[in-house]
Write a structure and sequence with these properties.
- It contains eight helices and no strands.
- The chain is mainly alpha-helical and 222 residues long.
- Helix 5 packs antiparallel against helix 6, helix 6 runs antiparallel to helix 7 and helix 7 packs antiparallel against helix 8.
- The protein is elongated.
């Protein structure tokens, strides 16, 4: 009897504790498990549109165009047309050319006359460096009173550079020293036409007046 008494007392104590223990609140909603999926009415996240592969354009054709080729077999056996030597081109004027162009005959005659006489306009080479060198050499001769050589150099400078002001003025001085007043006056006037207000314009005007007053046989002072 004493052996089973503690067991009975322990069982009674457990039953009393179970009756007095707090009961859990069933009103609270159960917690959502971690792996639960989203509700059906939730809109899915917008996905990025898939990129289309870029279309590779064909590389440009950089090859030069090929000329049309002609095969001998395509020519046939028929003879071709003869050259203009056998069939000369008609160069006669039209019927109304005289009334439409009344002065055309004169122009043709002038052109034919120039061709017969062989008159061709003078062509002068343009070389300003050569002209500058000729002026430098001409000044060298002028300072040594070799006016013949200086004149040749000044004229050669004007050949390579027409209407050069310096060469024209120096040529006028050279001609004045050589007692050729008419030619000297002409070159002084040419200088004034090229540079009316140039650095040598006052001297050119004085020289023209001096040559006009000088007697024909009197040589200019040196």
């Amino acid at each position: 009897m004493r052996r089973f008494l503690p067991v009975v007392v322990l069982g009674c104590g457990l039953s009393v504790w179970a009756q007095n223990a707090p009961k859990p609140d069933n009103s609270a909603p159960p917690s959502q498990p971690p792996n639960q999926t989203a509700p059906a009415n939730t809109p899915p996240a917008a996905s990025a549109p898939a990129k289309k592969p870029a279309q590779q354009s064909a590389p440009p054709n950089l090859a030069p165009p090929r000329p049309d080729s002609i095969h001998v077999s395509e020519l046939g056996d028929e003879p071709g047309e003869s050259s203009s030597k056998d069939n000369p081109v008609d160069l006669s004027p039209p019927a109304d050319d005289t009334s439409a162009h009344p002065k055309s005959a004169e122009a043709v005659r002038d052109a034919e006359g120039s061709a017969d006489t062989g008159e061709v306009g003078e062509f002068r080479p343009w070389d300003p460096h050569k002209a500058a060198k000729d002026i430098e050499v001409g000044d060298f001769y002028f300072k040594r009173r070799n006016y013949v050589a200086a004149e040749s150099r000044y004229r050669e400078a004007l050949y390579y550079k027409e209407n050069d002001a310096i060469a024209t003025f120096r040529l006028a001085q050279c001609l004045e020293k050589m007692d050729r007043p008419d030619e000297a006056s002409q070159e002084y006037e040419s200088y004034l036409k090229i540079l009316p207000y140039g650095p040598e314009a006052p001297e050119a005007k004085k020289a023209i007046e001096r040559l006009k007053r000088a007697p024909v046989n009197e040589k200019p002072s040196r």
